[in-house]
Specification:
378 residues, alpha/beta, Rossmann fold, 2 domains, 7-stranded parallel β-sheet, 14 helices, elongated
Length: 378
Amino acid sequence: MKILLLIPDLTSGRGGIQAYCNSFIKALLSLKHEIAVISLNDNTDTRHNKSEYPFFYSSRCRFFRKPSFILRSIIEALRFRPSLIICGHLNLAPLALLIKKLFGIRYFTIIYGIEVKRIDKLKLRGLAGSENIISLSNFTKKMLMDNSKFLAESRVHIVEPTFDEHIFKPGPKPAYLMDKHNIRDTDIVLLTIARLSAKEKYKGYDEVIKALGLLRKDYPGMKYIIAGSGDDSGRIASLIEEEGLKDAVILAGYISSEKQALDYYRLSDIFVMPSKAEGFGIVFLEALACGKPVIAGNADGSVEALMRGALGQLVNPYDHIEISKAISRVVRQEIAPNLLSPNYLNKEVKNEFGYNVFTGRIGRIIENLYSKHTVGKL
């Protein structure tokens, strides 16, 4: 089948949406579909293998970016003649609807999380015209259904994210990062990898910082690394200073590659991100694949990433005291032994969220494109 993908970006950064779109493309290629990809925000092609599929990126000039993306999408729909369009973000659904009206091409829309909390009328029309909607989690699906009562649940299918099993696996702590951040062998390292957005503020690093203030009395060598960038970093730095933790909290900055992320996972002893509105959280899968104990919030899609507690601890993301107790339980080895076993965590996360599982779910949705779907996970 010929499939055209309209995506926000693919190679211009490392985030959950980029990771999901990359996995989706890889799955479609594995399923032997012929694809073409058009990106809104990429302004260059940094793929290793540029011959795998046609990839169209936008103008370097921001003023022309959206018009050129819209024009290219219409041209490729006419030239490539796809049987299906995959709309890689809710924001692009109105364009997919326009192409459907022009050429009669059906489309799917992928939804991730917070973007479905408030949906304007234009995007709602885009969703209404979508043949199927692919949601990363039941949490995101519920948010969508709460905000768009007219959509039938049977059109929304759950396809949880996957991760690169060949990259993310257990390994020793990288010496260069220990030197860079002045970390000793006896130090206990907590880690969060997240976008630092002043607008969103739901990743939970504020509460971890406050929890660390309590834990340092018993664990003076405990360090907390926040890896990521964004416009909230200044406020976080101020909070760290207010809490008297300048020597204990490290703002590592932007994570530019999977290899760099891998090194930080391996540097850590516990991955902790008690988020409040995460659609799913691919970082949880990556941390588990690296064999790290994980602590997540119990109020969002993180619950599904941790298999409702089977793969890690779930805590009240608003309660820094509860978070501190969960961290202490890991340090004292007072949790189930399998949740401390790198081999077990790596094996289980591959069994539940591995690439073959992800590809199989996508394949079944596309195979049933013209048949009546049932509600829930395929």
